[in-house]
Amino acid sequence: MGRGPPGRRVSFRGRAPGIRPMTRRRTRCRSGHRIRRRAYLVAAILALTLLSGACGIPASSAPQALSRGNVPFGLLSPSATSPRANPSRPQAATVVYLLQAGHLVPTVRSVDAPLSLQKVLGALVQGPTDSETTSGLQSAISSQAQLTATGVSGGVATIDLGRAFGRIGGREQILAVAQVIFTVTNLPSVTGVTFTDAGQPVDAPAGDGTLTSGPLVRQDFATLAPP
User: Fold this and answer.
1) Cα four-point dihedral sign 109, 178, 200, 163
2) Is there a domain that residue 152 lies in?
3) Which of 17, 44, 74, 210 has a Cα at 20 to 30 A from 198?
4) What pLDDT score does 60 carry?
5) Within 13 Å, how many C-alpha atoms sit on residue 1's CB side?
6) Which residues are bridge partners to 159 per DSSP?
7) Number of other residues whose CB lies within 10 A of the CB of residue 143
């Protein structure tokens, strides 16, 4: 708001001629009405505050368990990146082979039922759990590897290795192939494995380092077998 011209100030002390001033009694009456209205307003706000508090979550000095139906949406859902099986679905047990001190070690895993060759490969790629790593178990297979089961014929499974597996070299490659062979042939329907890369047959190392494009079996890695 703009101010009046310099030298002129608005004053409420004077009064125009012929207008009677308000009496003090009427002033106190209006002031009393304002006080009562403010008191009613404060009381209404307080009542609304208490009512909203009654509708909220009650305070408690001890933690209380919530039923699954009361947990906010999504908090109990498994992470999209979680590599483990979904415990809310029927499970099937399988065995994957990890490494310890240069030898294969069988470890039990649970995967979503029904059991399949691809699910077994997925469990193998996941590698050791934190507790298994602490106890000295390792894997020569990268968690980024993409092992794909393309079929089983006459007991021989064909597995496409993908690029990440091909980057493994030397002794580590022999150990990684041994992990795959022992894990896959643990299934009753598989006795041997051949490997491809982008659909093309590739040579894979046996336990002694010799390369072959034919099926590899457990006997080819006898020196790495569990003690």
Assistant:
1) positive
2) yes
3) 210
4) 44
5) 2
6) 149, 195
7) 10
> Which stretches of the chain are assigned E, i.e. beta strand?
91-100, 103-112, 148-153, 156-160, 192-197, 200-201, 204-205, 211-212
Total residues found in the chain within this entry: 227
Residue 2 lies in a domain: no
pLDDT of residue 168: 80
pLDDT band (50, 70, 90) for residue 89: confident
Tell me the sheet residues that pair with 105: 98
Asked if residue 14 belongs to a domain, the reply is no
Structural domain range at position 151: 91-224
Per the structure, the count of domains in the chain is 1
pLDDT tens digit sequence for 94-113: 999 999 999 999 999 999 99
How is 62-111 classified by DSSP, letter by letter? S--PPPGGGSPTTSSSPPTT--S--TTS-EEEEEEEEEETTEEEEEEEEE
Reported confidence tier of residue 37, pLDDT bands at 50, 70, 90: low
CB 107 within 8 A of CB 100: no
Determine the 3-state secondary structure of 218 from DSSP.
helix
- Write out pLDDT tens, residues 111-127: 999 999 999 999 999 99
Q: Please, which residues have CB within 8 angstroms of residue 193's CB and are 6 or more apart in sequence?
A: 156, 157, 158, 159, 180, 181, 184, 185, 215, 216, 217
Residue 110 lies in a domain: yes
Residue 129 in this model has a pLDDT that exceeds 70? yes
Lowest mean pLDDT among 93-97, 165-169, 213-217: 165-169
Strand partners, 95: 108
